[in-house]
Write a structure and sequence with these properties.
The structure is a single chain. The protein is built from 8 helices and 9 strands. The chain is α/β, with parallel strands linked by helices. It has a single domain, classed as Spore Coat Polysaccharide Biosynthesis Protein SpsA, Chain A, CATH 3.90.550. The chain has a 7-stranded mixed β-sheet, sandwiched between helices. It is globular. The C terminus is likely disordered. It comes from Candidatus Harrisonbacteria bacterium CG10_big_fil_rev_8_21_14_0_10_45_28. This is Glycosyltransferase 2-like domain-containing protein. InterPro entries: Glyco_trans_2-like, Nucleotide-diphossugar_trans.
């Protein structure tokens, strides 16, 4: 079987109502493209009947692979398990609730590719392409609540100043070359919600300049959040300090040589 061009990575837990719609949307959209693809769902133990639903979907969607996890590895940990099974040239990370639809991929396609490719002569091209919720031209429907907007702006400001200068440093939709990601994954330390931020921060250390594009973001008010503010803070500091630790290790290695 030919290697897929895209591997769609979706971590999931307690998403019996929304993930089926997302899977149908992804498969229907990509089946119309000329690129081969696979959809990989990493399922954490759930309180709903998502396990049984995915077993049925595996028979309905030939390109679907489901990893049934025995323990809850948190969102980032589940994502890492899916990465291990991915065989595509490019990995697309998205949410189980379809917050950013796979249809946004059409905006990203012109920017996907090695920075040294022929396309780079005409416009920006990168091995890391980010669908930004806060890029000029992005749209939120419905608009974010004021409290969430204030917290989000503060988080992005501090993160852009201290870790990585991106309009959406912890995106809900992004594409990265498997070759690049394979060099990043051994360095990853977080297993929670900030895994995308750590991936982007490590790409920066590898001198990879990402391309950002605006997306339509669906603000589902019924979305369940299992984020822990304390865990988010711990993950953020872990990523922040790893920047200096890795820099120190690199300098030591250079001196030994």
């Amino acid at each position: 079987m030919a290697q897929p061009f895209y591997s769609i990575i979706i971590p999931a837990k307690n998403e019996a109502k929304r993930l089926p719609i997302t899977l149908i949307d992804v498969d229907r959209h990509l089946s119309k493209q000329d690129k081969k693809y696979e959809i990989i769902v990493a399922l954490s133990p759930s309180e709903d009947n998502l396990h049984e639903i995915l077993q049925r979907f595996e028979r309905l969607i030939p390109n679907l692979k489901v990893i049934y996890l025995d323990t809850d590895l948190r969102k980032g940990g589940a994502t890492l398990e899916a990465i291990k099974k991915a065989t595509g040239e490019y990995l697309i990370f998205m949410e189980a609730d379809n917050a950013v639809s796979i249809t946004e991929l059409s905006k990203a396609v012109p920017y996907i590719g090695p920075s040294a490719s022929k396309k780079a002569k005409y416009h920006e091209v990168s091995e890391l392409v980010i669908g930004s919720r806060y890029h000029s031209g992005s749209h939120h429907n419905p608009p974010e609540p004021i409290s969430k907007k204030i917290f989000g702006r503060l988080f992005r400001l501090i993160t852009r100043l201290c870790i990585v200068n991106r309009t959406d440093p912890n995106p809900k939709f992004f594409i990265i070359a498997k070759e690049v990601l394979s060099k990043i994954t051994p360095r990853l330390k977080t297993t929670g919600w900030l895994l995308p931020l750590e991936i982007i921060a490590n790409a920066k250390k590898m001198k990879i300049a990402p391309v950002e594009f605006p997306v339509f973001y669906s603000n589902d008010k019924t979305r369940r959040s299992e984020k822990s503010i304390l865990k988010l803070k711990l993950e953020w500091w872990k990523i922040f300090f790893s920047k200096f630790f890795n820099r120190e290790q690199t300098q030591k290695g250079a001196r030994r040589q």
